Amino acid sequence: MTVPSGLYAITPDALVDDDARLMTAVAAALRGGASLIQYRDKRSDAARRHANAAALNALCREAGALLVINDDTALAAAVGAAGVHLGASDGSLAAARAQLGPDAVIGATCGNSLERARAAVAAGASYVAFGRFFASKTKPDAPPAELATLAAAHAALDAPICAIGGLTPDNLGPVARSGATLIAAIDGVFGAADIEAAARAYVAAIGGQTARIP
Ligand SMILES: Cc1ncc(COP(=O)(O)OP(=O)(O)O)c(N)n1
Ligand SMILES: Cc1nc(C(=O)O)sc1CCOP(=O)(O)O
Ligand SMILES: [Mg+2]
């Protein structure tokens, strides 16, 4: 499966306790043009996570977008999601690739490390994620990442690059011009009063950027 470019909207903690609001909010992000959705839910029990993941997967398919499940390869497989996003302590990328198959979208958290990204691609990651680039209300303790790392990854790796952490339509320009083709955001999309309009603003801002580095 090709990894899409554009807005990668990740569900916030604030919505996972309210299934109806979660669906309405994700539907709005999809109308606003999000191409990838990540279901990130560290609070719900297994049954609720399964039900939400299945419903979000159907919503994404209807919209022509893809659903990635955070942390949980087995849940991605169980609901037939497009793939999974794994951090350093979330299990093996190679095992996820073996379980989900060659077409799955498998993302890897790489912080500020090109070496981690190289290893992730070698282990089967479809995209590599660097962050955080700006102060993040969602994850205030995430260590900072540099634009130079994005540029180095863009030059060295044959894999789509995702950027995350405090990104907004107003500050994403340098990040996109350094090689990130996927802009991930939680609060800037789902914390907005008008989620659809917020997503549209990201998509418009991303559309105006092209990487400067060949
Ligand atoms: C696109 C994207 N990038 C990074 C992360 C962070 O993953 P991780 O380090 O495993 O932390 P948690 O999100 O699980 O708290 C992500 N989820 N998505
Ligand atoms: C989940 C996550 N991971 C990060 C990393 O740096 O790996 S930053 C982050 C939170 C992103 O949310 P917001 O767009 O609200 O800042
Ligand atoms: Mg994780």
Automatic annotation (TrEMBL):
Q: Per its UniProt record, what Pfam families does this chain match?
A: TMP-TENI
Which residues take part in binding 4-amino-2-methyl-5-(diphosphooxymethyl)pyrimidine? 38-42, 70, 109, 139
Q: What Enzyme Commission number(s) apply to this enzyme?
A: 2.5.1.3
Per UniProt, the keywords (alphabetical) are: Magnesium, Metal-binding, Thiamine biosynthesis, Transferase
Q: Which GO terms describe its molecular function?
A: magnesium ion binding; thiamine-phosphate diphosphorylase activity
Cofactor note (record): Binds 1 Mg(2+) ion per subunit.
The positions annotated for binding 2-[(2R,5Z)-2-carboxy-4-methylthiazol-5(2H)-ylidene]ethyl phosphate are: 136-138, 166
Name one cellular component (GO) term.
Answer: cytoplasm
Q: Name one GO biological process term.
A: thiamine diphosphate biosynthetic process
Q: Look up the record and name the pathway of this protein.
A: Cofactor biosynthesis; thiamine diphosphate biosynthesis; thiamine phosphate from 4-amino-2-methyl-5-diphosphomethylpyrimidine and 4-methyl-5-(2-phosphoethyl)-thiazole: step 1/1
Q: Which cofactor does it need?
A: Mg(2+)
Question: Thiamine phosphate synthase/TenI domain spans which residues?
Answer: 7-188
Q: Which spans of this chain does the record mark as coiled coil?
A: none
Function of the protein: Condenses 4-methyl-5-(beta-hydroxyethyl)thiazole monophosphate (THZ-P) and 2-methyl-4-amino-5-hydroxymethyl pyrimidine pyrophosphate (HMP-PP) to form thiamine monophosphate (TMP).
Quote the HAMAP family the UniProt record gives. Answer: TMP_synthase
Q: Any idea what this protein is called?
A: Thiamine-phosphate synthase
Organism for this UniProt entry: Solimonas marina
UniProt gene name: thiE
